[in-house]
Design goal:
Elements lengths: L1 E7 L2 H6 L8 H9 L3 E7 L4 H8 L4 E5 L11 H12 L3 E3 L2 H7 L3 H5 L9 E4 L2 H12 L4 E5 L8 E6 L5 E6 L7 E4 H8 L8 E5 L8 E7 L2 E8 L13 E4 L7 H19 L9 E9 L2 E8 L11 H13 L2
Parallel strand pairs: 1-2, 1-3, 3-4
Antiparallel strand pairs: 5-10, 6-7, 6-10, 7-8, 8-9, 11-12, 11-14, 12-13, 14-15
Helix pairs in contact: 2-10
Length: 325
């Protein structure tokens, strides 16, 4: 069995990379321990044909490429390539079709009636947002999220002021400061987001100051947890480090049962993802909420870093899936 571990990089990285010197080295070792031949696959639109030729010679590929790459590009060309590779018989995870169903902010709106749900509104255009957002702000602070991004890009906390034409706006990108902006100024900054999809308007959860919990899944089972005590949208704070824990951490066992037994079946049914199409490696970000938890986002495109406890289960999941073919 041969698997490629893919990430985004430049020509120099592709030509010189060695797993022993890369952050995915331990992951590669976990696959080798399960009998895989493992090779790196550095991707860039500039040499996409080379990556395609390489992937056609492996049995499977696990992809770590963010929706917006380091050089400011999106994944449009890569997603086309991965779809072609999958049609040729390579096991691709995560498949672009699955990402569209569960790995964008659309999932917040689609699952808003689940127990992790919240008041989420969908704006298909800047005009819809111009009409709907002022009404939502009358209720209280809101969090606006672009369709597909990462690392806080396109995520804003808006706090209403005494002047309905102005808001206090805080971008979730690390190092951003709260600004007093007119609604027109803020909306102009968001205009580019609508080029890739709708925007989503979620009620602000004041309990975010208690931190967020990340559940790391391998297929339909949690294989680790992350706990971040300070989030980027906590007023006056910069995000803190995320601490990692194995799946048997005692105080997370009720959450683990609820996630595996309730949320995953409901999620897959709601968004139309079969058990076979589930990502091999994905996570859900949760905030504490009265009576339980509130969904913050689901990460599918590039889940890294992730707990060491999930590495061997990830390799075994690929081994099992390939054996079943």
């Amino acid at each position: 069995m041969k698997i490629a571990l893919m990430w985004h990089g430049n020509r120099e990285t592709r030509d010189t990379v060695k797993f022993e010197e890369h952050r995915l080295g331990p992951t590669a070792e976990a696959f080798r321990a399960e009998g895989f031949e493992v090779e790196p696959c550095v991707y860039n639109d500039d040499f996409a044909d080379e990556a395609r030729e390489q992937l056609l010679k492996v049995d499977a590929v696990q992809v770590w490429v963010n929706p917006i790459t380091d050089d400011g590009r999106n994944r449009e060309n890569l997603d086309v390539l991965l779809t072609e590779i999958a049609e040729a018989g390579v096991l691709v995870r995560t498949h672009p079709g699955t990402i569209q169903k569960m790995g964008t902010k659309e999932v917040l709106f689609a699952t808003r009636k689940m127990s992790w749900g919240s008041d989420v509104r969908r704006y298909a255009s800047a005009e819809e947002m111009r009409i709907g957002l002022p009404q939502a702000l009358k209720i209280g602070p809101r969090v606006l999220k672009q369709f597909r991004g990462h690392s806080g890009q396109g995520i804003w906390k808006l706090t209403p002021t005494n002047d309905p034409s102005r808001v206090l706006a805080k971008h979730a990108v690390r190092g951003s400061k709260e600004e007093d902006l007119s609604m027109e100024e803020w909306a102009a900054r968001c205009a580019p987001y609508f080029k890739t999809g709708p925007m989503f308007d979620q009620e602000f959860n004041p309990r975010i100051a208690e931190g967020t919990i990340r559940c790391y899944f391998v297929r339909d089972r949690i294989e680790g947890f992350g706990h971040q005590e300070v989030n980027a949208l906590v007023p006056g704070s910069d995000p803190g480090p995320r601490l990692y824990f194995p799946p048997d951490r005692l105080d997370f066992q009720d959450l683990k049962r609820q996630a595996e037994e309730e949320w995953v079946p409901q999620l897959t049914e709601t968004v139309g993802v079969t058990e076979d199409d589930l990502p091999m490696l994905w996570d859900i970000d949760l905030m504490f909420a009265d009576g339980g938890y509130m969904l913050c986002e689901i990460n599918v495109s590039s889940v890294y870093p992730y707990p060491e406890s999930a590495m061997r289960p990830l390799a075994r999941a690929f081994k099992s899936a390939l054996a079943a073919r």
